[in-house]
Amino acid sequence: DQPPAPKRYLALSMSSSWLNLANQTAVVTGAASGESKKSIYLLGKCHFLTPPLFVALSTMSGIGRAVALALAREGCNLLLADVQRNDLNSVASACCQATSYNISIQTSLCDVVDKSHVNEAIAQADRIAMGTSQSSCNKASILVNSAGITRDGKVSNISDRDWEDVIQVNLRGTFNTCQAFCETERVVSLLTSGNRVGGSIINIGSVVSQYGNVGQVNYSASKGGVVGLTRSLAKEMALLSCKIAEENNGTNRITPAVRVNCIQPGFIETAMSSAVPNKILSEITSRIALRRLGRTDDVADLCSFLASSHRSGYITGEVLECSGMLRL
């Protein structure tokens, strides 16, 4: 089934700035709802069912929104994709108010597991780039994958459906968007465009894939898969970039046309974390060197850095932890 017709937003104010993401086009999946709230918090001997009280490692609630706002402030045209229409419209409106640039902000009701939805969303982003770009590059150049779900529980209680749902959304969904984004035509366009902006894929993983967490074998496996996908795709894109560069008059461009990196958040502060008992929050923060939970802006700022080929053009295939030095 085709997704419903997108709603469009246009931020009308304008200003000049040195920020180098201006005029690029970014796709942000999970921009509204982020990760599911259906979670169980398990840490050591602590075991709290949710709702109403929970804290989950690397919960994406608010991260997609924070990333969208950060990119809007830097002048990125945006295609915001999510399965939650009402929340998506709210994020788009917030982005309009947050930016001082004349940018295009559009939304797409998109299930990342459905390739037809993903292909249409990427095509829509390319149409935005074609209609707004001030260079010869007519392709979206930034992809942020923050869509994800959790279905937590002890291994003996995880159903086949719980396993499949998490793997499908978190791993297959990331693969679907990366596959659609990494078409050869896009790489050629990014390499040969007038200003050679370069492209960037940023996958949101989790420290759970590195340290493990009781009750999250499915989630940990899915995010571990995202790490492997990131590193392998980064190598593939670098080799493809070199091949295309040689075929186009042997340009001496070192930075790959599409860089691929992964951010692994730790415990991220959300609106619901304020409802978690102080005893539990104290246990969490005692395992963090900086002695505080992460903020969505901490992750969003790192996304902005990785999105820019001018700031991070020599960084690809990396897995960057954003956890305040969490140790489980």
- The domain count comes to 1
Structural class: alpha/beta
Distance between the termini: 43 Å
- Helical run tally: 10
Instruction: Please identify, by name, the CATH architecture.
Output: 3-Layer(aba) Sandwich
**CATH class bucket:** Alpha Beta
The level of helicity is 40-55%
Report on this structure.
This protein is of the alpha/beta class and 328 residues long. The chain has one domain (8-322): Rossmann fold (3-Layer(aba) Sandwich). It has 10 helices and 10 strands. It has helices at 63-73, 85-98, 115-132, 160-181, 184-192, 208-211, 217-247, 278-285, 296-307, 309-312, and strands spanning 8-10, 25-29, 41-43, 46-48, 77-82, 104-109, 142-145, 199-204, 258-265, 319-322. An 8-stranded mixed β-sheet has the order 1-6-5-2-7-8-9-10, with helices on both faces. The protein has a two-stranded antiparallel ribbon with strand order 3-4. A hairpin with a 2-residue loop joins strand 3 (41-43) and strand 4. Helix 3 runs parallel beside helix 4, helix 4 runs parallel beside helix 7 (217-247) and helix 5 (184-192) crosses helix 7 (217-247). The longest helix has 31 residues, at 217-247. The model is unreliable at 5-19 and 36-61 (pLDDT under 50).
Brief overview:
By secondary structure, the chain is of the alpha/beta class. It has helices at residues 63-73, 85-98, 115-132, 160-181, 184-192, 208-211, 217-247, 278-285, 296-307, 309-312, and strands spanning 8-10, 25-29, 41-43, 46-48, 77-82, 104-109, 142-145, 199-204, 258-265, 319-322. An eight-stranded mixed sheet has the order 1-6-5-2-7-8-9-10, with helices on both faces. The protein has a two-stranded antiparallel ribbon with strand order 3-4.
